[in-house]
């Protein structure tokens, strides 16, 4: 169940961060409401996830997967493009998340 909470935290953070650009520095009401609600869901869910997932592992997964998903959202919603070094960096982040999940004994509960 902890990984479900972690997934919800990641999704909430991605939604909130994506809406932040649309909020225009919190000058537009509904995107600003989405930002606040998204981060509230993200931190609430993360607080449940870290009950059993080690803090460093949960945060590494949350931030790593979040970075990649935010990049995808920025591409789809705001037509932001990445150059080759950025794509290589994203690949390394994905590789790091995979190494943590597949090989680290730190993820054991």
UniProtKB/TrEMBL annotation:
**What Gene Ontology terms describe what this protein does at the molecular function level?**
amino-acid betaine transmembrane transporter activity; antiporter activity; choline transmembrane transporter activity
User: What are the record's GO terms for cellular component?
Assistant: plasma membrane
As recorded in UniProt, coiled-coil segments are: none
The answer to whether UniProt assigns keyword Cell membrane to this entry is yes
Q: What domain of life? A: Bacteria
One GO BP = glycine betaine transport
Q: Which residues cross the membrane?
A: 26-46, 58-78, 84-103
Under InterPro entries, the record lists: EmrE-like (IPR037185), Small_drug/metabolite_transptr (IPR000390), Small_multidrug_res (IPR045324)
What family is this protein classified in? Belongs to the drug/metabolite transporter (DMT) superfamily. Small multidrug resistance (SMR) (TC 2.A.7.1) family.
Q: What is this protein called?
A: Multidrug transporter
Q: From which organism does this entry originate?
A: Chondromyces crocatus
């Amino acid at each position: 169940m902890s990984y479900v909470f972690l997934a919800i935290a990641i999704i909430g953070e991605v939604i909130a961060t994506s809406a932040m650009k649309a909020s225009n520095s919190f000058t537009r009401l509904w995107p600003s409401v989405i930002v606040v609600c998204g981060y509230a869901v993200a931190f609430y869910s993360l607080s449940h996830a870290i009950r059993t997932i080690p803090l460093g592992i949960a945060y590494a997964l949350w931030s790593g997967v979040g970075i990649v998903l935010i990049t995808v959202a920025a591409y789809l919603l705001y037509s932001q493009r990445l150059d080759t070094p950025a794509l290589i960096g994203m690949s390394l982040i994905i590789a790091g998340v995979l190494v943590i999940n597949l090989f680290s004994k730190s993820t054991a509960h």
